[in-house]
Amino acid sequence: NETIYILAIESSCDDTSAAVLMNDKVLSNVVATQAIHKEYGGVVPELASRAHQQNIVPVVDQAIARANIDKKQLSAIAFTRGPGLMGSLLVGTSFAKSLSLGLQIPLIEVNHMKAHVLAHFINDDSMKPPKFPFLALTISGGHTQIVQVNDFFDMKIIGQTLDDAVGEAFDKSAKILGLPYPGGPLIDKYAATGNSHKFEFPIPKVKELDFSFSGLKTSILYFIQKQTKIDPHFIENNLEDICASIQYTIITILMKKLKKAVKLTGIKEIAIGGGVSANSGIRKALMDTQTTYGWKTYVPKFEYCTDNAAMIGIVGYYKYKNEVFAQQDVTAKARYLI
Ligand code: KG4
Ligand code: ZN
């Protein structure tokens, strides 16, 4: 039983990350977050690619140094092939290919959305993996989907957003309230002391297990415009209650669809992932279902929720064990279904 060392690289959006795994354990997980996008109120693709170019070598060096191994011990290199921003993906893809050539070790391509789902299988004392089959709710700034996971490499999307992702709903609502980017964590913070039933926003009617969040943003915008005409200080006087009401609406939408998914599939093992799963209201709502509905719920450690290379590494490990490797002519894929 050989020990497998995987170097993993993630560069799909605005975080440059590298990790080293020893089998299913994380030895290091380095993330360089690009601060530049804050000034623009969102991710600027062109700037993201440039920052990846600058960060990738130091980030990989640091991941290897922190893992305290020699490059020569690496068994394979795993990288994010997609989905994501093309310019960003190209940096990680080209780097991974070159390094695999240089070190003469296999290359493994990884789907970023699959990685969010399989992050639960990282061997960590603070986490317990869900049992197959389970439902994975992936909620981030770029994605919102419910995936039925039958096995490591047998999963299918059973519901997804038709427009904005949940993270965008948080960030765009925050922007309307004059909060800086990314506003999700700030809404979470103010919501903690607010009354979630003070204001009411409509729950969209969307077919089956799909989601829609663009209507929510519009209704918040109209509501705020109307109220500030009456009281110019409406936002500052009601910030906590507005945030709590927005968050409550988003949680209601998510829980409604999860309940429907459980009913349709009969699966009560629920795992969440993606940056928005940091939200304390969502975490609480999900934990509550353990007693109210008898669901088993799983939330990964925060560093494995947001974009990170460790989750790319765990997929790399399972692909290595199954001898699923990529060829040197593999290309990045901006649109890449799970
Ligand atoms: O997974 P992630 O780090 O990057 C993407 O792949 O998008 O997710 C970032 C998103 C942002 O929209 C951010 O506002 C949101 O996650 N977010 C939160 C919280 N923490 C991060 N949204 C609500 N409450 C939070 N506590
Ligand atoms: Zn992501």
TrEMBL record:
Residues 25-313 form the Gcp-like domain. Substrate binds at T138, I139, S140, G141, G142, D171, G184, D188, N279. Fe cation binds at H112, H116, D307. It catalyses: L-threonylcarbamoyladenylate + adenosine(37) in tRNA = N(6)-L-threonylcarbamoyladenosine(37) in tRNA + AMP + H(+). One of its GO terms (molecular function) is iron ion binding. It comes from the Bacteria. It is an enzyme of class 2 (transferase). Its main location: cytoplasm. Its cofactor is Fe(2+). SUPFAM superfamilies: Actin-like ATPase domain. One of its GO terms (biological process) is tRNA threonylcarbamoyladenosine modification. The keyword Phosphoprotein does not apply. InterPro entries: ATPase_NBD, Gcp-like_dom, KAE1/TsaD, Peptidase_M22_CS, TsaD. Belongs to the KAE1 / TsaD family. Required for the formation of a threonylcarbamoyl group on adenosine at position 37 (t(6)A37) in tRNAs that read codons beginning with adenine. Is involved in the transfer of the threonylcarbamoyl moiety of threonylcarbamoyl-AMP (TC-AMP) to the N6 group of A37, together with TsaE and TsaB. TsaD likely plays a direct catalytic role in this reaction. This is tRNA N6-adenosine threonylcarbamoyltransferase. It comes from Maribacter orientalis.
